[in-house]
Write a structure and sequence with these properties.
It is built from eleven helices and 20 strands. Helix 2 packs parallel to helix 6. Helices cover 26% and strands 24% of the residues. It is of the alpha/beta class and 445 residues long.
Length: 445
């Protein structure tokens, strides 16, 4: 889609988001696009036969994916050029013992995952998605397409002060979704639904085959283009599937042969600190890069080879950015308030919540200029702490030069978020140009 219009880019993003209600679906959707473009899947447990110009990807934990195009030059001499993003979004996760009865009704026991904006999950048509693990060791993706539960708000007649005092929610007692009116019926439990849904489009399963699951609630309302002139995007999980989509598009459109090895890393568990076997704090990406670097040295995976490669490398950490909110303009630093529709944002924090520095800013700003894009800048107010990304984590874990960037958005961490059609294509264009770089600037340490 290298010649796609901004509207086409936006529609493709929305299709990707709707296909990916969970990190596992996001990785499956990305893997499908990569496979269709000739990328071969590698297995961590096996030997890898990596050749210059080859296209490969690896999946870890179901929700993390690393894809790369092997460069013509050894990484120890040229480095890696990486784009990082994350597949997970704040949501509500189903607990292992899910069936709960209250006041004669059936509810689902859920846990808050990440920094959820709680109130936005009330009064929405919610479905279930994720993966179900079976006795034989396999896992199946599950995506229920119909609304199956809802978290009802309490009527204003019973909470008269809600509009003046604010909505006060307890996540243990107020975020439990209604699942059935009959708390005694066996077919109103979660397990029969899982059996029915898994048996619908594949080989039938029995209840005793289901031994585990990783399930999320998600809003069934499709993503949409809105606004008076069709300039706005209304969608769930823009943070951070919009960056995942841009990274995959850029990798697919950056061409086959290039001097540098180009890498895209899409991580799970960023929203909860990345502390997992498949998260940015793990050694997964480092070991992948070590094996790739070693392939150019006769299989030598010594630290010497990978250290030289990492010291020459650069990471573009792509995660969404806070756009100026017209109703809350005072929440932004006046000089660093990105606007919807005005292009990619370079994110800076002196206290290293973002890993951007002067040289990495210059690299990304130059890439923007090369393709006719003017970057915006975000720093938080001095009295409002900012969030963080995989950027500082990867920079610290691997010693990577890093720039933190993102597209501007509203309602971050809401059940449903907002962005601009005009911001989708420029970010893909810049990231594609970045991956086409014939060489990286030398480290300025």
């Amino acid at each position: 889609m290298s010649d796609a219009s901004p509207a086409d880019r936006a529609r493709d993003l929305l299709a990707f988001i709707d296909e990916a209600p969970t990190p596992y679906h996001a990785v499956a959707a990305a893997a499908a696009r990569l496979s269709a473009a000739g990328f071969a899947e590698l297995d961590e447990r096996e030997r890898w036969g990596i050749e210059a110009g080859g296209r490969y990807f690896i999946i870890k934990g179901g929700g993390t994916l690393v894809a790369f195009v092997a460069g013509d030059r050894p990484p120890a001499e040229s480095g890696f050029l990486l784009i990082g993003a994350h597949t997970d979004s704040p949501n509500l996760r189903v607990k292992p013992l899910a069936d709960l009865v209250a006041s004669g009704t059936r509810q689902l026991s859920v846990e808050v995952y990440g920094g959820v904006l709680w109130s936005t999950w009330l009064d929405r048509d919610l479905a279930l998605g994720g993966r179900v693990s079976l006795r034989d060791g396999s896992s199946r993706l599950l995506r229920v397409t119909r609304p199956v539960c809802r978290i009802p708000n309490v009527a204003i007649h019973l909470n008269r002060e809600v509009n003046s005092a604010g909505l006060q929610l307890n996540p243990q007692s107020h975020l439990l979704p209604l699942f059935s009116l009959d708390g005694k019926a066996e077919d109103a439990r979660l397990l029969p639904m899982l059996v029915s849904e898994l048996s619908r489009d594949a080989d039938a399963v029995t209840p005793d085959e289901i031994l585990g699951f990783d399930l999320c609630l998600f809003d069934t309302q499709p993503s949409a283009i809105g606004g008076a002139r069709g300039e706005l995007i209304f969608a769930p999980r823009l943070d951070n599937l919009a960056s995942c989509h841009a990274a995959i598009c850029a990798l697919l459109e950056s061409g086959d042969s290039a001097p540098l090895t180009r890498v895209v890393a899409l991580y799970d568990h960023e929203e909860v600190g990345s502390q997992s076997a498949a998260g940015a704090r793990s050694r997964f990406l480092g070991r992948v890069l070590e094996r790739v670097a070693g392939a150019y040295s006769g299989g030598d995976t010594s630290w010497e080879v990978s250290h030289r490669a990492l010291a020459r490398s650069l990471l573009v950490s792509a995660d969404m950015a806070h756009a100026l909110h017209p109703n809350y303009g005072d929440k932004h630093d006046k000089l660093h308030a990105p606007r919807l529709g005005a292009g990619p944002v370079i994110k800076v924090n002196a206290n290293q919540s973002y890993a951007t520095d002067g040289p990495s800013t210059a690299f990304f700003a130059a890439a923007c200029r090369d393709v006719g894009v003017t970057p915006q800048y975000f720093t938080s107010r001095n009295d409002v702490p900012c969030g963080s990304t995989i950027g500082p984590i990867s920079a610290a874990m691997l010693g990577l030069r890093t720039v933190d960037v993102g597209s501007p958005m509203h309602s971050m961490h809401s059940c449903r978020e907002g962005a601009a059609v005009a911001d989708v294509e420029p970010m893909i264009r810049v990231l594609t140009h970045v991956l086409k770089s014939p060489e990286l600037p030398p480290p300025r340490d």
